[in-house]
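Why do we care about 3D structure at all? Because function follows from shape, and shape follows, mostly, from sequence. That is the central idea of this module. The next example makes it concrete: a single protein chain, its amino acid sequence, and then its structure expressed as tokens.
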Amino acid sequence: MQINSELLQKLKVAAVKNAGSYVEKVLVSSTEHGNFGMDLVDRLHDQLPATACDNCGACCNSISIFSIEYHRIIRDLMTRCPPERLRRFIVSALRLDQRQAEIGSEKRLRCVFRDDETKVCLIHPVRPFACRIFGLLKSDGTRECERVRDINFPPQTVSEEFLTELQSRVLENSESYEPFEGTGKIHFFPVEFWIYRYLFSPQRALQIYREVMIPMSGALTSFWKDKRKFADIETID
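And the structure:
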């Protein structure tokens, strides 16, 4: 599937032209969400084993999160970041063209929260499930990445059933949408999707997800390749 270059260009122009109003809309939407579900998601995150890593950044790509996690992240940034830092974040989130990368033969979209120069995760205290789960010691003794290590001893193994059950508890507190007709609704989307959802509309966010983000991400392409023939995707005006 080819990237919708025209749509990507529109996002690029809008990011610069409307940065101020976009920042306001993002912050207002998460403020209006209130504290609903925040304590729950914090408690669920805390049930996962604590880990550390070499901070190489190889896994720091745009990952899919729940809407409740998105609001948790934005509300945390509001308490810690000055206005100009928030503005740079919003602009970076829309400038997908600046975060394209290829690792080997795989297309990737680098994480907007990763500062590659300082090797710092800007949201580490409130990082989502996808980041916390990566590299955990599985029941069969394997990890996705051997650079991840447990902080506590003895190391705690986790099962797929445990991880699934833990995440399922946030579903009723998170929004869901159907990216492609007939594939069913899902609750998890990249953080950029949630930004677009509150800046524009769910319909426009889904269009950007289908026509820009999926073809820019090997992981998203793989996820959807068996669920939908990309040749049948219709562009929304």
